[in-house]
Design goal:
Two copies of one chain form a homodimer. In chain A, 39% of the residues lie in helices and 13% in strands. Chain A is an alpha/beta fold.
């Protein structure tokens, strides 16, 4: 891509938008207007938004233009997955049970984004209650394919340049999978490192928020805002990264494009100076992804949906009912045994990462599947989610149908900044223009 | 106490009520009526309830009487701390910001209690947003003294025999402290072992639900219901417990009655066959309680109150504002360092508990302080909360003003059942009638 190509305002990153507004080169209104126009042009096909009011979005932007800078996101449009509370927009969670629901407060993450000056552009489509029953959203690269889920609308909106960044949530793989399928960056932080107040839980012992962007700068910018700290300079390594190539037990379920994405990245990174070595997971990890996506997820889902099950069962999708029934059949002892196993593995991570900065591991089985009924397989994301490690996907590859395939990077808990630094180094070496509108 | 004294229905335990209703000896309505009468008699002084509608409570009970048994809590009146969502009663969180707020759904724990047949009798007073700013509740043993907090109303209502059991939440010591001050049993489970969906977070990396009762049977009964399992038989040890007497670094802040409560318990238990030995905490634990109640609590509070701070600051108490300001001044690095320290200590627990079933440790500095402005010191509870261990207080002692002083028992994570079994053994040996209405 020619870096000199003039990009439309809706194609800029959050970091670029914030800088241009701060420099007085553009207005908040102009940026929001560009996003609004893109949504008007494209959302009939993409269906990323479930609640979007152009006039209200523009009013927020104009109000920001009238005042002093509110912070590092002054004027930056951001989308919010509709499982996350907003005091000024309905929060319907992809479920008829919550049609028209108006929360009394913003979720903590939304309040912190607004405090930093963000324009909350609208609510993005979520799978039902952040589960597996699809939203109507399509993949911006090909509307016959799923965008992934459950943060479907956030991924699709960012990939389609309707806005630069959006919030999602992840319990199995609900940030990284749609990010990978849509060809953008997705980040799931260390568990409990970012506040979830105001978000409907799915399985709270593994739930996190996460964010979806078209640049690593933006991953860092949102992290700093949500950490309640002034933006730090880009995280950079002082030496090439030490990378563990970790295929995991689900490697055999990977399609050729995923194997190629991971192995070509490892080979390229080795050639340009990174230390890359294979990492075998200890035996305790065998079956861990199934415990994460099955036992733990289902048992907690059955508990946290107790009200909906008892009062609104007929309004739940068949998928959700199956999940809940599976959880109801799971004994407490099985659940605790699953958690003990996860903790045993978590305790092994320090030695697993010995001498390594990050693991390079598959993110998704392959390209986004055809059809909109299923959002794809969380198997390659769920184990890391249960381990509470930070994880990130980079849009490095394209598959046989010209659809994106991301790789996944995983760091140790609380090592999110090192993850960012490694991701930046890796992206600088193997970044590929797989994004629709990310001419980086 | 003479076990043959006839007790009023409101003085029975949940387990006793459930058994009598199941046997057809009493009706749900009669039990609720007894509780309603007690509330009418006493709540003008105790002020345990912030939302209570006698007609609605009786209507719930009559509806249960008309149908088949719904489960192991059929007809049992239970109170719910007003930080926990109820779909049919306001949830005001002790804050004018949420006056009249009506959640769209029950919290998971409330839904599970109702599924088992409980009558949700009303909402009990909470400190503002489950923090430190007092509710109006008084200590049933002496209305000039605090009942403790933040689960103030739940503790006072149970201690005053307005109902047999109530839900609370604990972030520092908000279940165990009021239970100890009010002379009842309080249980805080292993972190993340019981669902928190539908509860306003305080500091979600340490928040748990908990329950307050007048018997160990009831602690177990509520646990089983909330674990979504059929009630198990009473947990019993097959050999006397192995107890670690753990004074902790805050021992020197303990008043004589607390030292006497802990040391007399240890001595008595040793005499009757328990293995009791001193446990010194490793150096890494020094200062841990301060990190738990300070750094971690304040930093997370500042994040999760972002909306209230930005939109309703004037409606927050001075205490809450100080907490939030303290959190805003805490750097992310300090917060992460605090968590790393907590995790380091958590990893030491296995060796600390080597050969031991439970730790016996102080629960509160002494009797409930005079005055209602402060709810007492969370220092002795907060460290265990941050360590994610299950903990329980037993009402074993009375201080110089004839007010209750509980002891605290702590077990390893996920070892809640062993904690129950030890508590039962210990209570059988040293249980003392310190409760107002618990003629056990």
């Amino acid at each position: 891509m020619d870096a000199k190509v003039e990009r439309a305002l809706n194609e800029l990153s959050a970091t670029e938008i914030a800088a241009k507004i701060a420099a007085g080169e553009i207005t908040c209104e102009a940026v929001t207007h560009a996003c609004v126009a893109r949504i008007a042009e494209r959302d009939g096909v993409v269906k990323a938004f479930v609640n979007f009011d152009a006039d209200y979005a523009l009013a927020q932007a104009r109000a920001l233009d009238r005042g002093p800078s509110r912070g590092p996101l002054h004027g930056v449009p951001i989308g919010v997955k509709d499982i996350i509370d907003t005091f000024d927009m309905p929060t319907e969670m992809g479920s008829p049970i919550y049609r028209g629901h108006r929360p009394p407060a913003d979720a903590a993450c939304v309040a912190l984004l607004r405090r930093a000056g963000a324009v909350i552009l609208g609510k993005t489509a979520t799978c039902e209650l952040a589960g597996m029953a699809s939203a109507e959203t399509t993949n911006p690269h090909n509307p016959a394919h799923t965008p992934g889920g459950s943060s479907s609308g956030s991924a699709a909106a960012v990939a389609d340049a309707m806005l630069p960044a959006a919030l999602g949530t992840q319990t199995g793989g609900s940030v990284l999978r749609p990010a990978s399928f849509c060809g953008i960056f997705g980040f799931k932080p260390t568990y409990n490192a970012f506040n979830k107040a105001g978000i409907k839980p799915a399985a709270e012992s593994i739930d996190t928020i996460g964010w979806l962007t078209r640049s690593i700068d933006d991953i860092e910018l949102l992290s700093d805002v949500l950490r309640m700290q002034a933006p730090l300079p880009p995280r950079k390594l002082t030496a090439p990264p030490r990378i563990g190539l970790c295929r995991t037990e689900v490697w055999e379920t990977a399609h050729p494009e995923t194997k190629a994405a991971v192995e070509s990245a490892a080979a390229k990174l080795g050639r340009v100076g990174a230390m890359v070595r294979d990492v075998e997971l200890p035996k305790a990890f065998t079956g861990l992804h199934a415990l994460a996506r099955g036992t733990i997820n289902h048992f907690e889902r059955a508990a946290c949906m107790a009200f909906e099950w008892d009062h609104h069962r007929e309004a739940l999708s068949p998928q959700m009912r199956r999940y809940i029934e599976s959880g109801q059949k799971t004994s407490r002892d099985e659940y605790v045994a699953a958690w003990r196993r996860v903790e045993e593995c978590r305790a092994l991570l320090a030695s697993l990462f010995d001498g390594l900065d990050v693991l390079l591991t598959p993110c998704v089985p392959g390209e986004a599947p055809h059809g909109l009924g299923l959002t794809g397989d969380p198997g390659m994301q769920a184990m890391w989610t249960a381990l509470h490690t930070p994880a990130m996907t980079l849009p490095t590859y394209r598959g046989p149908h010209d659809l994106p395939v991301g790789i996944q990077l995983v760091a140790q808990r609380y090592d999110d900044d090192r993850l960012f630094a490694c991701a930046r180094w890796i992206w600088d070496e193997i970044g590929a223009p797989v994004m629709l509108h990310g001419r980086l």
